[in-house]
Amino acid sequence: xxxxxxxxxxxxxxxxxxxxxxxxxxxxxxxxxxxxxxxxxxxxxxxxxxxxxxxxxxxxxxxxxxxxxxxxxxxxxxx
Length: 79
Prior knowledge:
The chain has 79 residues and is mostly helical. The chain has one domain (3-78). It is 65% helix and 0% strand. The protein is built from five helices and no strands. The chain has helices at 3-12, 20-34, 40-46, 51-60, 70-78. Helix 1 (3-12) crosses helix 2 and helix 3 (40-46) packs across helix 4. The N and C termini lie far apart (50 Å). The mean pLDDT is 80.
């Protein structure tokens, strides 16, 4: 199985979007967002959604996204 075939296989499991291209884009955007390569605003733009809607989608999926770094979160918890 090639990398492209493997990606399409994984993308096919994403139930949120109708076509495979949207699913692939979503997986790419998630990776870039959680790697902090792109911002939430850019991720939403790439998915053609408003940022608050995209954030709600992440929340519904159980994916926690924070603008804070893990160090910031630790500081906030200790405050």
